[in-house]
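The material for today's practical consists of a large collection of protein records. A record pairs a protein's sequence with a compact description of its fold. Instead of coordinates, the fold is spelled out as a row of discrete tokens. We will come back to this pairing of sequence and fold again and again. Here is such a record, shown just as it appears in the course material.
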Amino acid sequence: MLRTDELINEFYPEFIPADDACYKLEEALKENGLVDKIHNCHATDDRISYLRRILWKAYQADEIVSDEAIPRAVTLIENALKVREEWSMDTLVNSNDAEFNAFFEEYRKRAPHITYGTTHEGQPIHYTRYGLFDLEWLEAHWETHETFMKKSELRILEYMTKHVSEKESEKRGKTVDRFVWVHDSTDVSLAHVSFFQTFLSPMAHVIRALYPEIICRVEIYNAPWWLVGSAEVLKLFLHPMSQKKVMINSEFPEWLPTVTAIADIPSFAGGECTAEYFTTSTPDIGGFRHGGEMLELIKKLPTYPEITQIHIPDDSTNEEEKSPTHPEITQIHIPDDSTNEADEN
């Protein structure tokens, strides 16, 4: 999808790697014994799309579009493989670490992420709402579970770039390997900014190594005045493409409604989707919601649990409701699929 990106075609068309260059990189990987090791680095069977994104980074780094950039591209892939091994990325989504899995479930409740819907072109849309993050809990556990917190964020990204991309690619019959990131800045304070700088800054090199060029657009809305003001100053130092890629609005998103149906945009982002899923800060049971489906996050099951009864506690006695009421699942039915063959993982 790199080749169809409007901004890249507007500002850097000469840096879009041709198919022949991708094949040359593939041959170089074969010579280095790496070609059979990169299958977990990309979401779909379209290896060339992954190599194209790697070459794009190499071209930009070397500021040259030629075969001379191939060695740098090989180095980038070697680093990606090293990072994947260091963080156990191949087993992170389906981890057998009970302690980490328990922490991750709690982390999802304290730091909600939502992947929901797609643009007209098929890019999945990922929403974050940092103002709803439980900052007190995150700061306390940063001291004791720093590695688990980092792995939790990587697990979310790995799930997005593998399972969500794979499903959307199958659905559309074309490679889907890039995302739109939409961020709601409601109630975001300088304390949030400070913490996430501490939390995410050390992860920047890891994320860049693992997921090159997966974000095609960023739209930040409900931004506080100090963020809007700072953004106007920062724009003076950014490349015009970066200025268009990252959009910051003081109110609801302005670009998002132009690329996806208003009925598929959650109400908290100015859309018409008022599904109960969007009324709480707790992600859906079983995984993230994507395109109206319940996608299981921990492992791929032959069938998904069928929720047959939900009880919503009565909070009418509370003087002040500090957060939305979370439904309690009181009964879950697992359909009997003993006649089905096991899914291949």
